Structure formats: structure tokens, C-alpha cells
Amino acid sequence: MSRLRRFFLPLLAILLTGATAQARNFRTVVIDPGHGGHDKGGQWGLVYEKHLALDIATRVEAEVKKRGFRTVMTRRSDYFISLPERCRIASRYSDAIFVSIHTNYTWRQDASGLETYFFSPQSQALASYVHSGMTSKVRTVNRGVKTARFYVIRNTTCPAILCECGFVSNPSERERMKQAWFRQALAEGIADGIMRFRRAG
Ligand SMILES: [Zn+2]
Asked: Which CATH number characterizes residue 62's domain?
């Protein structure tokens, strides 16, 4: 090992550790309600994912604010916003995490439950905390924390996750999602998870 390398490698390690610590020192939570406008997302009758996602996200915003964070919403009402634009919004903040809110859909009507996705290794802990926050608030099928290549979690530089808050294609889950208490419980669970991730940092 050259002298230069002997000096450089520990320095690099310190810099990388510093970067991780900084990611945990986030003050801003970018909340991303999935879909919007002509993009309805999953749909069953008049129940649209885009509406459920916006309602849950708005509740997450209120809960996260209560816990002392600054919040940014990628959309506040029912309009279309592209996936790159969602990532651009997140990239404006150097002290942020990114939380995308969706609901699930499949042709198999018996599928139900919650799942949380991440892409980069730096986002795994955030996904785990938020997922257990949600599953501790509502009694449902725990589909687990998983990796996926969804655009918004793959193209954000900060810790980024995507929460699937239940299946609109499942009759009983759809009925629960139509009720405010269920959406509120999920929002509180997500906010608790964010807080626990912050404290663990
Ligand atoms: Zn979606």
C-alpha cells in the first residue's frame, strides 16, 4: 500500500461515515402522493389510488410537522406531476428524506396488506422503521420490506422509500381505506417510523 493510499483510505472512510451521519440528520421530509390528474393509479369503481394517496400524504404531513420536521409536498391537489419532477423537488433539499405514498392494486382480489419498498442500501433502515410504524398501528397482512426499481426511489439521492398502504382491489381493505380512521392510523405509523429512524441516527 502506498503512503498516499494509507492516508487516503482512512480519510475516505471518515468522509463516508460523515455522509451517512448527515443523512440521518435530516430536517426535511419530502412527501410524495403517488399519481394525480389523469393518472388515477389503481382504481376500483370510484375509489382511485390518487385520492387515497393524497389524503394519506396530507395526514402524514400534519403528523410529521407535529414531530418537528419541515415538510415539502410534491403535489397538494389532484394534478399530474411527472416522476422526474418529483425527484427534482427532492433534490432541492440537502437535508431531506423522501417518502412516496401509494396504494396497491392487483387482479387477485384476495391479495391484501402493507408493503414498503426501498432501492439504495442507505434507505433500508428508513423503510424498516416506517414499515413497522405502519404495521404496529393497523391489524393487517404484513407483506414486508422489499427492494424495487421504482423510478422515484431509484432517482433520488437522499434516503427514499415507497409505502404501499393497502390494496384497492381487495374488497375489505378497500372498505377500510375509505374510512378516515384507517388513513389516519397509517399516517401516524409512517410519522412514528420517520421519528424512530431520526432518533436511531
Ligand atoms: Zn401507485
From this structure: 3.40.630.40
Q: Domain range holding 150? A: 3-200
Report the share of the chain in percent with pLDDT over 70: 89
Q: 120: CA distance to ligand 1 center in Å? A: 19
Nearest Cα to Cα of residue 29 among 182, 160, 184:
160
As for how many domains the chain has, the answer is 1
User: Residues with beta carbon < 5 A to ion ligand 1?
Assistant: 34, 41, 102
Q: How far apart are CA 173 and CA 73, in angstroms?
A: 26
Calculate how far, in angstroms, residue 36's C-alpha sits from the geometric centre of ligand 1: 10
pTM: 0.89
Q: Measure 195 CA to ligand 1 centroid, in angstroms.
A: 24
Q: Which residue type does 12 have?
A: L
